[in-house]
User: Which sequence fits this backbone?
């Protein structure tokens, strides 16, 4: 927090008496109590007791405030700012530490195979307990998160592929094409869309979108694609409406408001001058967007997409409802049922708590840790990408 | 006024060359944005291959006039227009006129440099690309030729893939000039192109404009009267939305017929 910046709200107490004494222009509301205009450091603890801004004239406010007079409040704010800044860091460290602590038994027993094994077998909670590998666990327990990881990545990828072009197009339309009145309205709906609870999306996915896809859309796609190896992903059994495609679409709808709203705000920052220059060169609106406006915000769009990706990776409820929640198999087509890390955690936590050895919960914690790492990697990747895109060097601080 | 020059009849095809003196002819042009007109009843001709300076106090309507010539005002809310602008005898406001084609022939350079967020090379050929004028090799040739023309090639030849935003303001403006020239316009409109530049670059731009004629007709809005005297064959003086006086630069500055002009060019108003 910039606590030392002089702000008018801090009040007139810090003002030194202008030009010696009594030459202050205009009688303030306080009448003769010019004491208040003495330097604050001479004023003692009484300062700050009056309403900020009271009794200032324009000229008084226009004077530059001496730093010394503001130190007290500055230090207080600084302390507040410092602690406020560390809270998120501490929270992150604390959550991570707890998670790692919980996950240690699972990490020890599952080993690196956790990332590569398909089988997700909690063992028999009511059978014997084993102590093999130094970790207490139900007999036969063996956890492999590959299907969850693949499901998480695939569904998020589908969501992004659908959502990013749509969002950028929507943002361009809102900012560049629609008249002012309409663009405000559309923007409002975008924000409403962002505020819908995910469980509502999930319900809609199960009740409406899933059946619609399974009965009408998916059979059509699967039936009309040529028999080419690459496209075999879109052929085959179209299922019953729960699976990758439905989840990807539901996630996309959840991601669109995030990416579109961010992109819209970015597009509003693009200066008019280069766009005008492009128009004057005889470019069409589309060419102006493609050659000037979009390149101008390219790195920002990457950032916005990662915001959306983070949402999709971590989305729990909606995916748990429309994924089919099938653990332990890799999807063979875009219509196949699957599950994600987040969806598995929420759907299995209840039964995992009945594992008296605590190993099931520990394995879920390990899965959660993997999800955090994936999200972190996505963010780091985005930063690298942003830097690469941004090497085109936009004018920073030139006020163009 | 240039009316002494006899012109060929309009609308007999567009052969460039000596057959026609005036590339642009403005008749009774009135322009405004809602409310009162910004520009009233302007009649003006621009002889082919010359430099015309538009001078006048701020708010006199010069820039609005300039922006009418390539129809940049079309989208401004409340914009209205009466009168005609004829490019080689054809109205630029006729229903069939393609804005993109018009702006290819009538290029524009702005007061402040406005490079695109593309590489230097792509900046120069952005218009060439948009109009599909050349293939890859052709674009490279055009970029080199135009950068040489504006005197940037020596400094930028090895930096073609870099961002234009790291260039100095003067270099950016020269780049924008190269970009405008790359599509081969017949007319170049410049709106105070040197007002934000250092003296050395100003001189480079003025040199360039002189070299561009007679191949290109140049119309330049300037607040710098000395610049108008240095480079312009003709000068048009605008004041309060009217064209007050137009003629050969030497006459407008040396022997103005209107009192307003005389006061402006001698620095007593504006």
Assistant:
């Amino acid at each position: 927090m910039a606590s030392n910046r002089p702000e008018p709200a801090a009040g007139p107490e810090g003002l030194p008496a202008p030009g010696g004494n009594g030459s202050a222009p205009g009688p303030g509301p306080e009448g003769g109590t010019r004491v208040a205009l003495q330097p604050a450091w001479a004023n003692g603890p009484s300062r700050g007791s009056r309403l900020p801004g009271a009794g200032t004239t324009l000229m008084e406010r226009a004077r530059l405030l001496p730093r010394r007079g503001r130190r007290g409040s500055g230090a207080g704010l600084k302390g507040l700012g410092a602690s406020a800044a560390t809270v998120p860091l501490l929270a992150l460290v604390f959550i991570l530490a707890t998670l790692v602590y919980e996950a240690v038994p699972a990490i020890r027993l599952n080993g690196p195979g956790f990332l590569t094994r398909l089988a997700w077998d909690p063992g028999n909670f009511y059978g014997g307990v084993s102590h093999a590998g130094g970790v207490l666990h139900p007999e036969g327990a063996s956890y492999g998160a590959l299907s969850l990881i693949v499901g998480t990545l695939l569904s998020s990828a589908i969501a992004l592929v659908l959502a990013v072009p749509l969002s950028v197009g929507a943002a361009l339309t809102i900012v560049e094409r629609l008249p002012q009145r309409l663009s405000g309205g559309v923007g409002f709906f975008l924000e409403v869309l962002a505020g819908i609870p995910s469980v509502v999306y999930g319900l809609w996915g199960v009740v409406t979108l899933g059946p619609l896809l399974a009965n009408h859309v998916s059979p059509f796609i699967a039936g009309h694609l040529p028999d080419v190896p690459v496209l075999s992903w879109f052929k085959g059994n179209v299922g019953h409406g729960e699976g990758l495609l439905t989840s990807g679409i539901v996630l996309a709808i959840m991601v669109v408001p995030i990416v579109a709203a961010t992109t819209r705000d970015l597009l509003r920052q693009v200066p008019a001058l280069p766009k005008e220059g492009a128009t004057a060169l005889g470019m069409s609106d589309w060419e102006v967007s493609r050659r000037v406006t979009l390149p101008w915000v390219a790195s920002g769009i990457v950032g916005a997409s990662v915001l959306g990706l983070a949402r999709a990776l971590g989305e729990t409820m909606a995916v748990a409802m429309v994924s089919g929640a099938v653990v332990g198999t890799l999807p063979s087509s875009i219509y196949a049922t699957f599950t994600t890390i987040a969806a598995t955690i929420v759907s299995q936590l209840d039964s995992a708590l009945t594992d008296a050895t605590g190993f099931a919960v520990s394995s879920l914690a390990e899965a959660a840790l993997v999800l955090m790492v994936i999200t972190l990697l996505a963010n780091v990747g985005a930063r690298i990408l942003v830097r690469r895109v941004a090497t085109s060097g936009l004018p920073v601080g030139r006020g163009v | 006024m240039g009316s002494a020059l006899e012109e060929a009849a309009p609308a007999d095809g567009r052969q460039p060359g000596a057959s026609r003196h005036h590339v642009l002819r403005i008749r009774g042009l009135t322009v405004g944005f809602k409310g009162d007109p910004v520009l009233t009843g302007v009649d003006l001709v621009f002889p082919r291959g010359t430099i015309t300076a538009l001078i006048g106090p701020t708010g006199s309507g010069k820039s609005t006039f300039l922006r009418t010539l390539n129809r940049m005002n079309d989208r401004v809310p409340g914009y209205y227009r009466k009168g005609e602008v004829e490019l080689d005898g054809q109205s630029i406001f006729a229903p069939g006129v393609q804005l993109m084609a018009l702006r290819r022939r009538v290029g524009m350079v702005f007061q402040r440099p406005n490079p695109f967020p593309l590489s230097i090379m792509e900046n120069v050929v952005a218009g060439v690309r948009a109009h599909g004028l050349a293939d890859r090799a052709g674009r490279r040739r055009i970029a080199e030729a135009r950068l040489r023309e504006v005197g940037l090639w020596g400094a930028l030849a090895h930096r073609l893939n870099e961002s234009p935003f790291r260039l100095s303001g003067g270099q950016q403006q020269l780049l924008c000039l190269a970009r405008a020239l790359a599509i081969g316009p017949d007319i170049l409109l410049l709106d105070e192109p040197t007002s934000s530049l250092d003296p050395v670059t100003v001189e480079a731009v003025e040199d360039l404009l002189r070299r561009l004629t007679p191949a290109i007709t140049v119309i330049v809005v300037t607040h710098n009267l000395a610049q108008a005297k240095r480079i312009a064959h003709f000068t048009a003086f605008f004041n309060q939305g009217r064209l007050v006086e137009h003629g050969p630069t030497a006459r407008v500055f040396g022997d103005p017929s209107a009192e307003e002009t005389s006061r402006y060019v001698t620095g007593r108003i504006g």
Summary: The domain at 2-265 of chain B is CATH 3.40.50.300 (Rossmann fold).
